[in-house]
Design goal:
Layout lengths: L11 H11 L3 H5 L6 H9 L10 E4 L5 H6 L8 E5 L2 H8 L8 E4 L12 E7 L8 H11 E11 L6 H10 L5 H11 L2 E8 L15 E7 L16 H8 L5 H31 L7
Parallel strand pairs: 1-2, 1-4, 2-3, 4-5
Antiparallel strand pairs: 5-7, 6-7
Helix pairs in contact: 6-8, 7-10
Length: 285
């Protein structure tokens, strides 16, 4: 299952407008039920941040939620947060823990860092908006130093039939095997996948709720990824060349369907999240 052509958010421009709205309540309502501090700590642990002088890039860093976990172990002056949304980055700039980080706008599929630059690469909750995930992971390989480690944190394709259908309409939810294959093709070695999920999830998937994963890989050789010369132009560059006009009806229809899909996920996850806070631990739900 690759990126669906029918999904709500089909390119970075649409993601930009999506986050212009969601950034208003992202840290208070949007993020907490889906990506908790416990999940973040589990994921960041896989980066092996053993040295405060490590150079770290957080790609698609948004409001800096993941970065706040990174700077507990690495000096903030060595950390760069990159995102295409100025509205999300404005939230990151307001956080005291991140005031010494470098915060820049940029494209995950065309990173503004030199080859063999960083010791660690992390990206959380961003890959689902990338038109070409393979290109983004190939870029992760390029910017890392030999021996550097990348960590990709993202959603996983759900199991429940209705949620799977809605997932295909909303955004990209990769299979676990796809994450691993993207890393392999980019040239990473020692690839590991770890499942992570909020405590309220409790391993029960009767509602088709999404359990996330984090995938790590190590760059073993210097220079570009073996795929760097094979990647070709970015998907959105090709669309620009074709100069297809935006069809308002299609865009509006996808927006409506995408909004319904988002409400579905938010309602279910918020319900389960609140129920976990009310129902005593250990009682099945």
């Amino acid at each position: 299952m690759m990126a669906s052509q029918g999904r709500f958010i089909q390119n970075k421009k649409e993601a930009y407008w999506f986050y212009r709205i969601i950034s208003i309540f992202y840290d208070t309502i949007g993020n907490p039920p889906h990506y908790t501090e416990e999940m973040r700590e589990e994921a960041v642990e896989t980066l092996d941040l053993h040295d405060r002088n490590l150079i770290v890039v957080d790609v698609g860093g948004g409001t800096g939620f993941t970065t706040c976990g990174v700077v507990k172990q690495v000096d903030a002056k060595n950390v760069t947060i990159l995102d295409q949304s100025p509205h999300q980055l404005a939230k990151a700039k307001q956080k005291e823990a991140l005031k010494h980080c470098t915060i820049i706008e940029g494209d995950a599929e065309d990173l503004p860092f030199p080859t063999d630059y960083a010791d660690r690469y992390v990206s959380a909750g961003s890959i689902e908006y990338w038109p070409n995930p393979q290109r983004g992971i190939t870029e992760a390989f390029r910017v890392l130093k030999p021996g550097g480690k990348a960590c990709m944190i993202g959603p996983v394709y759900p199991t429940y039939w209705l949620t799977r259908f809605i997932a295909d309409l909303w955004m990209l939810f990769p299979e676990e095997e796809e994450y691993i294959e993207w890393f392999k093709r980019a040239g990473f070695k020692d690839i590991q996948l770890k499942r992570i999920g909020p405590k309220w999830f409790r391993g029960v998937r009767r509602h088709g709720l999404i359990i996330g994963c984090c995938v790590t890989g190590v760059k073993s050789i210097p220079g570009d990824s073996p795929l760097q010369q094979l990647g070709g132009p970015k998907a959105e560059d090709m669309k620009k060349k074709k100069k297809k006009p935006l069809i308002a009806f299609g865009f509006n229809l996808r927006s409506l369907i995408g909004t319904i899909a988002a409400i579905y996920y938010v309602q279910i996850t918020t319900y389960m999240w609140l129920k976990d806070k009310i129902v005593p631990k250990g009682i099945p739900i």
